[in-house]
Amino acid sequence: MAHAKLFHQCGHNTTWNIDSLSDEECGDGLILSPVHRKHADVEGIGKSIKSASIFDPQFYLPNSQKSKLQTYPFFPESISPNSFATGDFTLVALEAANKCIDFQLGNFFNKVIIPARFYDQMYPDYMDRQNAYTVTPFLRALSSRKVKKPIYLTLPLTSHMVINKIFRTQLLNWVTSFPEITGVYVLATPHDEGSKQIQSEDFLFQYMDFLQQLRNATLEVLIGYCNTESLLFLMIEGCDITFGSFENTRMFSIDKFITTEEDRRGPKARIFSKGLLNWVQIGHAKEIRDQDKKLWGKIYDPTEYGDRAIKAAVEPTFNQPQLYKHHFILFSKLVDELRDLPIVDRYKRMRTFLKEAEELYEEITDLPMDLEKHSRGSHIQPWLTALNKFYRVHIKKD
Length: 398
Description:
45% of the residues lie in helices and 11% in strands. The protein is an alpha/beta fold.
């Protein structure tokens, strides 16, 4: 049975992820983010950590002006300094590929990642565009090297691509046409605008179905930019998943390559509840603690970081590490509870988690207390529906 790995999706304050990996043994490695970490900073990370980790070149928006991306000599905007243009870049794409591969190999990363461009439309020539942009030059550059590491192709998708079965089949045929490709680093933009947890049961099931198809094609799969729904992806044998600190590492968006996060207003502090399978505003969490100690014991699993945040006289801000390190510990435990079980038992345990969470939300409502829209548990029933359907289609034996 393939053992699913858990990777930190790194963004701002990567040191928190490194500390969590090294000190608390949360997760199995990092996915390093050049949009948030300069070239020299990545090179300065220890070999032992990088050899368990991967580097995502983040070519998603090739004309991005973000300053940290510009420190990488192989980034499209850096290699085409007179402003990126697709036609011009094809002339230097092999140079970019060689430099990017040399960087990944020279830094001892666990895999070689072939980057991709993010498209928000299902263009008829989607695969041809990706081939010209990175796939063909990267495979050509790799052919001149004896690379023994796994080679992964990045697959950035929109929710519409995921739901469209014909397009998914085309993607599957395309990815499996390259014998050099070991696996895919797949990520999908969220289906639900304005919600912090995915609430579309159709999107979730179709995504899981596609991931299963990739695995059936004997491809390795790493799913990027996951939120709590990644627990559902553990129903697919051998899929590696991710977890992150800030919301922009738990949900993929092209915004981080366009705008500066410093211009944004910081979100309200939230604490992760293992029992609720959700993040709850810390003010509401304290109200539950003060109102019903028994219920609090069901929804709050103590960690030193969570205790420190809850007991603080001043509410923590989003740029302090306690709440995120609390999340890393609890989420790692959830993953550990699931990933080593036989697949049918894994399904039963996940279903139990969801049904218990549903009961806890009812207890909160009965206090009475009405949590704000992102904390109410509206995702639980759609997740149950998607989970049960996936079980019936892919796991249940006649």
